[in-house]
Amino acid sequence: MNKVLIFAAALISHSLFAMSLPENQVDIGKVNANGKPVTLLGSGIELGQQAPNFKVVDGSFVPVTLDNFAGKPVLISVVPSLDTGICSLQTKHFNEQVADEYKNVVMLTISADLPFAQKRFCQAENIDKIQTLSDSVWHDFGKNYGLYIKDMGLLSRAVFILNQEHKVIYKQLVENLATEPNYDSVIEKLKSL
Q1: 99 located within any domain
Q2: Which residues are catalytic?
Q3: pLDDT per residue over 116-141, tens digit each?
Q4: How high is the pLDDT of residue 18?
Q5: How many domains does one find in the chain?
Q6: What is the spatial distance between Cα 188 and Cα 186, in angstroms, rounded to a whole number?
Q7: Which helix H or strand E contains 159, and what residues bound it?
Q8: Contact at 8 Å (CB) between 108 and 73?
Q9: Residue 164: how many CB atoms within 10 A of its CB?
């Protein structure tokens, strides 16, 4: 009985949170799932703007903000859920193919997965060069970057690169949630740092 009440409370809390968010006006109609458009909630961001701060948690529920990486360029790989094939491939790609080449860049993967699930995934897949962070507690990242998917409780797939001053110098909002990002364009931008 208690599990049912906890689930119901979480569902109500999630619904109230989503209802309080505006629709992302910057990225309307840019993302689909199974050929159907999805509605992104929160404040969309554009190239050249100062990256919004965010508050997420690491695998031990310790809060992490963008300010933790002051003065460093940052790559943010955003995935809906690490427990899905494409998200797993995306995370492994940045861990295995990119992180070693660009050691001066902080590499983050952010999803709405619970920290327990992220920790399990990282241990099982030997993810050790990038940091996985969870937006499950405050949904602050999804809200501030306009990536919170209405009626799904997940984040839309995207990649951002921030320079040392944390200005957005690269944004790739992946059009189809079931496809991987264009890694070549990410690498080209990383080379320019």
Answers
A1: yes
A2: 87
A3: 999 999 999 999 999 999 999 999 99
A4: 55
A5: 1
A6: 5
A7: strand 158-162
A8: no
A9: 14
